[in-house]
């Protein structure tokens, strides 16, 4: 992870002149660094370089501690909202029992609802290798059953004694939340 360049504050600003923006957002104009520092200190605030590449560099008079706190808070909020997608694997056999199949499909639905990808692996043993069409039928059944929640990311592929396929969750529909609110509103009336 690359670290953001450090913001220069007060005496660390080493240029002859800066464009100053006051704490109320008004332009104070182009001043020498000494004048800008004196102005900031008279208000009990810091001089913070916000745009070092501009000519002359732009500095703002503000409370640096509060500025750093707000930056960290925004970064935490962004991290909280982000979702890391995991690949969950579900293993099956071509002659899977109906109850086991249903149980594994329930797990697949849970994973897809949690916005994770699901990798289906169908393993062939012994004489089952002579009938790969049973595995392909099972894959088609899975796709048909999960068509509402997922789309195929990697189509079924035979790799030795295994047949694998990866499904990814479909993006959530925007209208679902609106309908839920309308239904709740109608129930209240």
From TrEMBL:
<dbReference type="GO" id="GO:0032790">
    <property type="term" value="P:ribosome disassembly"/>
</dbReference>
<dbReference type="InterPro" id="IPR036787">
    <property type="entry name" value="T_IF-3_N_sf"/>
</dbReference>
<protein>
    <recommendedName>
        <fullName>Translation initiation factor IF-3</fullName>
    </recommendedName>
</protein>
<dbReference type="GO" id="GO:0043022">
    <property type="term" value="F:ribosome binding"/>
</dbReference>
<dbReference type="GO" id="GO:0005829">
    <property type="term" value="C:cytosol"/>
</dbReference>
<dbReference type="GO" id="GO:0003743">
    <property type="term" value="F:translation initiation factor activity"/>
</dbReference>
<dbReference type="InterPro" id="IPR001288">
    <property type="entry name" value="Translation_initiation_fac_3"/>
</dbReference>
<dbReference type="InterPro" id="IPR036788">
    <property type="entry name" value="T_IF-3_C_sf"/>
</dbReference>
<dbReference type="InterPro" id="IPR019815">
    <property type="entry name" value="Translation_initiation_fac_3_C"/>
</dbReference>
<keyword id="KW-0963">Cytoplasm</keyword>
<dbReference type="InterPro" id="IPR019814">
    <property type="entry name" value="Translation_initiation_fac_3_N"/>
</dbReference>
<dbReference type="GO" id="GO:0016020">
    <property type="term" value="C:membrane"/>
</dbReference>
<dbReference type="InterPro" id="IPR019813">
    <property type="entry name" value="Translation_initiation_fac3_CS"/>
</dbReference>
<feature type="domain" description="Translation initiation factor 3 C-terminal">
    <location>
        <begin position="86"/>
        <end position="170"/>
    </location>
</feature>
<dbReference type="Pfam" id="PF00707">
    <property type="entry name" value="IF3_C"/>
</dbReference>
<comment type="function">
    <text>IF-3 binds to the 30S ribosomal subunit and shifts the equilibrium between 70S ribosomes and their 50S and 30S subunits in favor of the free subunits, thus enhancing the availability of 30S subunits on which protein synthesis initiation begins.</text>
</comment>
<dbReference type="Pfam" id="PF05198">
    <property type="entry name" value="IF3_N"/>
</dbReference>
<feature type="domain" description="Translation initiation factor 3 N-terminal">
    <location>
        <begin position="9"/>
        <end position="78"/>
    </location>
</feature>
<keyword id="KW-0396">Initiation factor</keyword>
<comment type="similarity">
    <text>Belongs to the IF-3 family.</text>
</comment>
<comment type="subunit">
    <text>Monomer.</text>
</comment>
<keyword id="KW-0648">Protein biosynthesis</keyword>
């Amino acid at each position: 992870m690359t670290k953001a360049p450090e913001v220069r504050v007060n005496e660390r600003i080493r240029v002859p002149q800066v464009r100053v923006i006051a704490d109320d957002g008004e332009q104070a104009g182009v001043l020498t660094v000494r004048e800008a520092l004196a102005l900031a200190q008279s208000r009990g605030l810091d001089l913070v370089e916000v745009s070092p590449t501009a000519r002359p560099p732009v500095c703002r008079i503000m409370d640096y501690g509060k500025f750093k706190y707000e930056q960290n808070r925004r970064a935490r909020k962004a991290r909280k909202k982000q979702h890391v997608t995991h690949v969950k694997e579900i293993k099956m056999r071509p002659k899977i029992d109906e109850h086991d199949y249903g149980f594994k499909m329930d797990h697949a639905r849970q994973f897809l609802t949690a916005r994770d990808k699901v990798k289906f692996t169908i393993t062939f043993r012994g004489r089952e290798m002579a009938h790969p069409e049973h595995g392909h039928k099972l894959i088609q059944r899975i796709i048909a059953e999960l068509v509402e929640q997922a789309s195929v990311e990697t189509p079924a592929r035979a790799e030795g004694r295994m047949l694998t396929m990866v499904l990814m969750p479909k993006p959530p529909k925007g209208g679902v939340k609106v309908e839920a609110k309308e239904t709740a509103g109608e129930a209240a009336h």
